[in-house]
Give the backbone structure.
Amino acid sequence: MKKTYHLCLSAGEEVMFRDEEDYNRGFNCFALTLYKTGSTGLAEAFMATHTHQLVQTECPDEFMHNCRKSYSTYFNHKYQRSGRLGEKMHFSMEVTGHHHLMAAISYVLRNALHHGVAPIPYAYPHCSANAFFRKEMGKFLEERILPANKYYRHIGRRAEFPDSYRMNEHGVFLRESVLDVPQVENLFVTPRSFNYYMTRKSSEEWDKEQSKDGEGISPINLDLIEKGVNIHRLDRMLIFENGKADYRKTSDIELCTKLDELARMRFGRHSVYQLTQSEKVSIAEELYRTHHLSEAQIRRCLVLLK
């Protein structure tokens, strides 16, 4: 019997998605795993160093194993890397109760806001916030769809997928064709209610609201959602929730793309993974001096682990 789970895979201080192709492939692996395991996807968010997924499945461990294995194979081949991608254990939490599920979906879709990379959930392209109430919220943009025989260049020749999956010209499955959109929309009832939850601030009122689901069930909050991410800071995330973040700063995806290009053009390497320690240190010192980036961001994008 399927149950609902929040699954989180973190790479700690390593970047899991270095460019747009990686983010697209990550979601495609998620979509293919849903079909392969007979699971249902409700919501997700792919961040530079971790992923959040809300799925209904019979075996969450099997689901995550399949999803991370397929993406790791792609990632290691692309960057000529070896070994496990992501921390050894993923975080899994069963979600029960109507109000608990609404809270879980809301926090997952607002993840980019809490990490200071987007001012509102709808502005972040690598989550499913824009998959729900599309027509009612005025999202009429029709994307160019690839013919099915072109899908395989973005998912591999052996991939199996249902006829209902549609892929856009950028090589990523449309979220509204993959997720159980009607179930999520029925949960929030109206687009106005959904939008309220997307902009709602963290407070004790959320905990009280979830108590309606019955006693003995811990409320879902930001701290619990981020439990699987070892590098999160709750106090800073609450500041970002209030819109106090510099969205003009260099993002991880921009820095990683630049660094991999630098590895090829200046050092003749395939990616930063082939750079020597001394070469990485040299680049790090240059970035810190000329671009005033944080040491933490430079280290994770250069894979200059402590």
In short: The chain has two domains: 3-241, 252-302. Residues 106 and 200 are 9 Å apart (CA to CA). The chain has a mean pLDDT of 92.
